[in-house]
Amino acid sequence: MGLDVESVILNGKAILGIELGSTRIKAILVGEDGEPIATGSHSWENNHVDGIWTYSEVDIWNGVQNSYQKMAIEVKQKYGVPLQKIGAIGFSAMMHGYMIFDKDGKLLVPFRTWRNNMTEQAARELTERFNYPIPQRWSIAHLYQAVLNQEEHVNDINFQTTLAGYIHWKLTGQKVLGVGDASGVFPIDLNTKTYNQKMINQFNELISPNHLSWKLEDILPEVLVAGENAGVLTEEGARLLDSTGELEAGIPLCPPEGDAGTGMVATNSVAKRTGNVSAGTSVFAMVVLEKELSNVYPEIDLVTTPTGSLVAMAHSNNCSSDLDAWVGLFDEFSNAMGMEVDMNKLYGTLYSLALQGDADCGGLLAYGYLSGEHITHFKEGRPLFVRSSESNFNLANFMRVHLFTSLGALKIGMDILLKQEQVKLDEILGHGGLFKAKGVGSSMMASALNVPVSVMETAGEGGAWGIAQLASYMINKEEHETLEEYLSEKVFKGKAGVTIFPDPKDVKGYEQFMKRYTKGLAIERAAIENL
Asked: Which residues does UniProt assign to the signal peptide (predicted)?
């Protein structure tokens, strides 16, 4: 193994993926079989500056360099060779937001991340004008809001991109985006796999009274699909990525992608009729569609896979935070009783108890709204647990209701797809903290969505591993080999996973719980107004 890996590294056959998440930047080097060879990570946090959630350019580059450096040091320590040549590199990052530059490449205003809810007017007007859902966090909403606010910098804009697109541009000189990331900038035409020209014309018309120095198509990056070459690492880019100077220039880069797309790749859910659900602090489900939806729904965002297939996304702000707080309370109780309990065991025990509860949670009701919830139209939240005197109040039902409610808002969004739009879904791949206790999270999700839920062993690898697979696909694919085929045949073949099928009794119980959940939203509203 050691020797094989050494020669893979020395011959420049290893592939590098780097993803910038909201709290962690991760670099992962994989071998020819797609398995990790070395990793490095860097923790960071966004700053709230002058009312804007942002990361500075200095923080961005320090984080990228640090995660790369830690990975390169691990290569030296483990395999005794320096990292000089790499087969291909890919960058991904959190999507959306606002990064704009003047003609000299200078950032005009601090990076506005996806977390900023400051574009309500723009998002509403664009959604109406395009008859297409434009969420507040989308880059085009940020741009139009800046135009509406008559911000001084708007006339000087020469280039707009995302975080992944920015890093890629600085390393290669190429102003490009992968189609998945681009689909969170501006709506994509599914036939041409680039921006929707009709909507570009509508946008230009909308801003024409402002007499700006640019048209939209002049400032947006070119759109590429998975497998296309997106440029090579320049000498300057090599120094920027590896400050020690060991890394050689000339390495090919794949199109930079968004974290939604790399999550789909990491769970092998890029084919039509598949989906993946990420459940942790927040929860979102992504379903690859066979056709466009018949209506515009504020609860559903539309993006694409890295190959340009349409994806519907239901996103809920709240998932496991309140659940974690309750587990923390049981931990405090254990300590007060003089029992030191391992947290993994505590989670596993409490989560497993939920499987023994009544199908509908015995009449209990809870809301884990630590923050607002757009699907149910709450600007802020109050975590809440409530029961009637007739409810069957025991620990199994208590845990079950908190697991059920962590998926309640998501289910409302998913019901629009599965029931109203009759979207067909063969299975959904689960990843994230909610699925760590074997069989519990997937059982709850299967009950909520009435769809088989699989958890892969690779689900923990994350987006950095996903973008590494996209870089590998670009240089290793055979002629006419699709990304779906490449992932299924070469990356995921033989990889084990556990599938839980929905139990009709539990599905019925979840539907009963949802009636209570929907009716009880008035209680949540009263709590916000009075607490």
From this structure: none
Per-residue pLDDT reduced to its tens digit, 347-373 = 999 999 999 999 999 999 999 999 889
428 residue type, one letter: I
Residues of the chain with pLDDT under 50: 1-2
**DSSP H helical segments within 194-294, as ranges?**
197-207, 216-219, 235-241, 259-266
Q: Looking at the domain 259-316+411-504, which fold is it?
A: Nucleotidyltransferase; domain 5 (3.30.420)
Q: What is the 3-state secondary structure (H, E, C) of 20-76?
A: ECCCEEEEEEECCCCCEEEEEEEECCCEEECCEEECCHHHHHHHHHHHHHHHHHHHH
pTM: predicted TM-score of the whole model, two decimal places: 0.87
Average confidence score pLDDT of the chain:
94
pLDDT at position 151: 97
Q: Which residues contact 385 (CB under 8 A, 6 or more apart)?
A: 364, 365, 366, 401, 402
Superfamily of 87-236 according to CATH: ATPase, nucleotide binding domain (3.30.420.40)
